[in-house]
Amino acid sequence: MKQTLDIVPLKSWFDTGDAPLIIAGPCSAETEEQLVATAHLLANTGKVNVLRAGIWKPRTRPGEFEGIGSIGLQWYRRAKEETGLPISTEVATAKHVEEALAAGVDILWIGARSTANPFTVQEIADALKGVDVPVLIKNPVNPDLSLWLGALERVNRAGIKKLAAIHRGFSSYEKTAFRNEPMWDIAIQLKTLVPELPVINDPSHICGNRELIPYIAQKAFDMDMQGLIVESHIDPSVAWTDAKQQVTPQALSDLLSNLTYRHAKSDDPVFEDKLAELRKDIDKLDDQIIKILSDRMKIVEKIGEYKRDNNVTILQVNRWDEIIHKRSNVAQALKLDKDFVVKLLELVHNESIRKQNEIMNSKPVAEA
Ligand code: PEP
Ligand code: MN
């Protein structure tokens, strides 16, 4: 089901031409010198469109550095004036919104912890009524698409039309290589539900370490995301927050040069023709797959009736083991990924069991 948000295209409020939107800057504003010097180095790369810096920091544990607070806004304004770059920061309360706007912050974002809390989002949305400022909404910390959508709707209903989402990954109990699991499928679902919504990727908070950033950033472009927000610090080793995931402005510049930005469409008619031709072949094969599945299901039904009439169980583990074993060998010989084929067979098998269960619990059709 498509969702509608009353938004204007990214190009109308931030035109980067054919290039992605790049937001970069330190996790936190720490000192005037650190913020302004980092801003200059980032501006000098010529690859950064907007600065980022946290003025108020949501910290998991009390007693950690919770952001430099309002004083940082004055330093930030200086960075904006000297570099000519627009500035962005996280707001979590109505007061933050008021202070940030008064200081000339150009773009606001709502952090992952705030998105998870509808009271907070509503408070921010109320403070934004009557204001024309772009707002970026990070996904909630927990993998819940509705909360993300809900926050976008609340802010949109407050009249904010310059809206975008930030994909920064999700908390998961299981420890993996990432600080926050990307769970790409949730971001893809959001893009499918609201195709006009720009989605920007935050590889820094997904990775939690600088080494993995290029991999995630490229994947984001491959998934048709329209920009990146990356943490960059003049000297990451001494950063007060998120030291492991920050990169120097030079490293950011190199990283950006090595990425390939892809477009959802091409203007090249030869490419479009070839793509259309290949898609026709795919359509034909998909139709055949559906037809084959339907034929297979008919046989499954017949077997179901046969089992029912002879009082035999639906599930026969040996038979299932044999199917998995044989088919994965065939798959391997055909250079198909074994796990993919097993997953597909499991889906088909579950549906077969569901069908046979239905049959098992229905009465045999009386003989005429
Ligand atoms: C941040 O961008 O500095 C931040 C706190 O991120 P998140 O809300 O994604 O944790
Ligand atoms: Mn951070």
From TrEMBL:
Keywords in alphabetical order: Transferase
Entry GO MF terms: chorismate mutase activity; transferase activity
Enzyme class: isomerase
Matches recorded under PANTHER family: PHOSPHO-2-DEHYDRO-3-DEOXYHEPTONATE ALDOLASE (PTHR43018), PROTEIN AROA(G) (PTHR43018:SF1)
InterPro entries xrefs: Aldolase_TIM, Chorismate_II_sf, Class-I_DAHP_synthase, CM_dom_sf, CM_II_prokaryot, DAHP1/KDSA
Domain Chorismate mutase: 269-360
Statement: the UniProt record of this protein carries the keyword Protein biosynthesis: no
Upper taxonomic lineage: Bacteria, Pseudomonadati, Bacteroidota, Sphingobacteriia, Sphingobacteriales
Name the record gives this protein: chorismate mutase
EC numbers for this chain: 5.4.99.5
SMART domains linked to this entry: CM_2 (SM00830)
Record organism: Parapedobacter indicus
Gene Ontology biological process terms in this record: chorismate metabolic process
Cleaved signal peptide residues: none
A Pfam family hit: DAHP_synth_1
